[in-house]
């Protein structure tokens, strides 16, 4: 046993090279060097809204929050967005189109932009999100989802839309509750139960 240990500690040239490769590979695996990729940077500006209680700035903040939770991108902080746009004299109040967004994205030096709109249409709330790739100046992904008109659940709707856009797993119960129109419109904060005793009244007019 002692001889084997001594031989391992003092290897030949060929064995030493093999050992060196193993050590380097282990070091890279532990530190992430060479294998891990830096997350792409992304910015979210205002999200246009219509007939909703949330204004475009608030909706943009909500989308940004849910995007950060996914950890899929390095999301630019809202304060950094405000600082950079003000420093460069850029007006983002009505910047929803691809041309305008690409101009701002290049000024911010980000890889992606996430934009879209949300509006109430009859008994539905429709959220449309678009992921723009800055390098190719193209719309990379789009998701349009129709939800039941439950404004109190707007954050969950945004969560679903963001995850659908990125192809992430979504809790099917949330989807069934807010997207499936075959189900009754019931908020997650209100449960409607039809079990238990029931009462009825019959009225028969006298002649």
Describe this structure in words.
By secondary structure, the chain is an alpha/beta fold. 40% of the residues lie in helices and 19% in strands. The protein contains seven helices and six strands; from the N terminus they run ααββαβααβββαα. Strands 1, 2, 3, 4, 5 and 6 form a six-stranded mixed sheet that branches. Helix 3 crosses helix 6 (154-166).
SSE arrangement:
Layout: H1 2-9, H2 13-31, E1 41-44, E2 48-50, H3 56-70, E3 74-75, H4 78-87, H5 98-108, E4 112-121, E5 124-133, E6 138-148, H6 154-166, H7 172-178
Parallel strand pairs: 1-3, 1-4, 2-4
Antiparallel strand pairs: 4-5, 5-6
The percent of residues in helical segments reads 40-55%
CA-CA gap between termini: 112 Å
What spatial form do the alpha-carbon principal axes imply? globular
Whole-angstrom Rg: 27 Å
Put simply, the count of helices is: 7
> What does the main sheet amount to?
6 strands, mixed
Order of helices and strands: HHEEHEHHEEEHH
Mean pLDDT, to the nearest integer, reads 81
Flag low-confidence runs: 5-10, 31-35, 187-204
Number of extended strands: 6
Structural class: alpha/beta
Summarize the structure.
By secondary structure, the protein is of the alpha/beta class.
Jot down its keywords.
207 residues, alpha/beta, six-stranded mixed β-sheet, 40% helix
């Amino acid at each position: 046993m002692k001889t084997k240990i001594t031989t391992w500690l003092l290897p030949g040239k060929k064995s030493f090279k093999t050992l060196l490769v193993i050590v380097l590979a282990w070091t890279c695996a532990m530190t992430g060097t060479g294998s891990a990729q830096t997350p792409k940077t992304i910015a979210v500006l205002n999200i246009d809204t219509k007939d909703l209680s949330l204004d475009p700035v608030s909706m943009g903040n909500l989308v940004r929050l849910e995007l950060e939770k996914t950890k899929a991108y390095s999301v630019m902080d809202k304060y950094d967005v405000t600082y950079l746009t003000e420093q460069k004299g850029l007006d983002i109040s009505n910047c929803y189109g691809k041309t305008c967004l690409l101009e701002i994205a290049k000024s911010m030096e980000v890889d992606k932009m996430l934009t879209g709109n949300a509006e109430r249409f009859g008994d539905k709330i429709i959220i449309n999100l678009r992921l723009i790739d800055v390098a190719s100046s193209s719309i990379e992904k789009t998701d349009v989802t129709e939800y039941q008109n439950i404004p109190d659940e707007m954050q969950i709707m945004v969560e679903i839309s963001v995850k659908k856009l990125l192809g992430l797993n979504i809790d099917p119960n949330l989807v069934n509750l807010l997207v499936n129109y075959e189900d009754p419109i019931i908020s997650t904060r209100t449960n409607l139960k039809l079990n238990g005793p029931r009462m009825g009244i019959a009225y028969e007019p006298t002649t």
